[in-house]
Automatic annotation (TrEMBL):
It comes from Nocardioides cavernae. Gene3D superfamilies: P-loop containing nucleotide triphosphate hydrolases, RecF/RecN/SMC, N-terminal domain. One of its GO terms (biological process) is double-strand break repair. One of its GO terms (cellular component) is cytoplasm. Belongs to the RecF family. This is DNA replication and repair protein RecF.
């Protein structure tokens, strides 16, 4: 797929901007802070209705405005669709496809699929487990849009269950009895929805593994296919392949009941899981976090994104690949290696402060980004 046209209104630093795009490679060049990332962020926002940079919509709306609009025409297997999202922080967002309103904005998720690699992605390997869970869940939702609902249901269940645990932990007598019986309902909810999320993550990690090894070999100099690996560490025992995840979660909840009541938080479920990233060989395998060098960590983060790209591509339509500010970090050899690797992508959007950093093969179409305007540089 590719974006053929992007229109922004009051999105980030842009009052109004209108850019015609083409398949193949496009480079956005401009000094720091001119709005390059803001452009690609808008396309990424359409794919999941959330930004890779912030957790809420408010910063996406231009300072002083109360609404932003992102509109893109997307070409997929020869057919064009016009997607539009209106961001209304504090109120409900609205989405339209081909000018028809959708009952729920969430229905737009998955129609555009993007994979973004940006320097912030170093947090994928160096950051908290929550950063890695988010990466998995974002990828899950792009592959299976229905899971966006499962994910938000799970978050809601967790919040309600945590507040109930706090109440039940301090309650006495009949109010405690009432809280404990309500807790059982929330245990069931957590186990049911949690099992769905957990099962999807476990399957995703298995699907991603072969692509990760290949991608790391391609981006890290001198690496081989088995160097990079990942392993899902669940907070419950998911040992046997036919393990009923729901039962496993319920059993684990029963075991930790007292501790949960004492601490007033849910200690079991996919929100406590870790995605372990490792580098090494048969003799020595070490976690990336805390052990890998800066260069290795960076290559690993890039490999995770490229593996995601390859996995989505294997599912069907090519996603849109965004390489935000990536080339400045690489030496000449690795620049051309990466350029070769992504050369076959249907659409690659590259941003850079300095044009010379971007390999010639990725400068198919070049735009200059300055003073709130995006102009084609032919
Ligand atoms: N909601 C907003 N309203 C107005 N301006 C904003 C908003 N959000 C971000 N900006 C401005 O947008 C600019 C950052 O744009 P962006 O991140 O796209 O820069 P960039 O061209 O990618 O720079 P770099 O090369 O440093 O990555 C900043 O100057 C910031 O103040
Ligand atoms: Mg930027």
């Amino acid at each position: 797929m590719h974006v053929a046209h992007l229109t922004l209104h009051n999105f980030r630093s842009y009052a109004d901007v209108d850019v015609a795009l083409e398949p193949g490679a496009t480079a956005f060049i401009g000094r720091n802070g001119q709005g390059k990332t803001n452009l690609v962020e808008a396309i990424d926002y359409l794919s999941r209705l959330s930004s890779h940079r912030v957790a809420t919509d408010a910063p996406l709306v231009r300072a002083g405005a109360d609404q932003a609009v992102v509109r893109a025409s997307v070409v997929k297997e020869g057919r064009t669709a016009l997607l539009e999202v209106e961001l209304n922080p504090g109120r409900a967002n609205r989405a339209r496809i081909n000018r028809s309103p959708l009952p729920r904005p969430r229905e737009i998720i998955g129609l555009v699929r993007t994979v973004v690699f940006a320097p912030d992605d170093l947090t994928l390997v160096k950051g908290d487990p929550s950063d890695r869970r988010k990466m998995l869940d974002d990828l899950l939702v792009l592959r299976t849009p229905r899971l966006a609902g499962v994910r938000s249901d799970y978050d809601r269940i967790l919040r309600q269950r945590n507040s109930l645990l706090k109440t039940a932990g301090v309650a006495r007598g009949t109010s405690r009895d009432a809280a404990m019986s309500t807790l059982e309902i929330w245990d069931d909810n957590l186990a049911r929805v949690g099992a769905e999320l957990l099962g999807a993550r476990l399957a995703l990690v298995e699907d991603l593994r072969p692509y990760l090894g290949k991608a790391y070999e391609a981006v890290a100099r001198g690496a081989s296919r088995d160097d990079a690996d990942l392993e899902y560490r669940a907070s419950v025992d998911v040992g046997s392949p036919d393990q009923d995840l729901r039962t496993a979660l319920l059993d684990a909840l029963a075991v930790r009941r007292k501790e949960e009541l004492d601490r007033g938080i849910s200690l079991v479920g996919p929100h406590r899981d870790e995605l372990l990233l490792t580098l090494g060989n048969a003799e020595l395998r070490l976690p990336v976090k805390g052990y890998a060098s800066h260069g290795e960590s960076w290559s690993f983060a890039l490999a995770l994104r490229l593996a995601s790209y390859d996995l989505l591509r294997a599912d069907g339509d090519d996603p849109i690949l965004v390489l935000d500010d990536v080339f400045a970090e690489l030496d000449a050899e690795r620049r051309s290696q990466l350029a070769q690797l992504v050369a076959g992508a249907e659409q690659v959007l590259v941003t850079a402060a300095v044009a010379a950093d971007v390999p010639a093969s990725l400068q198919g179409v070049r735009f200059l980004v300055a003073d709130g305007a995006v102009t084609r540089d032919d």
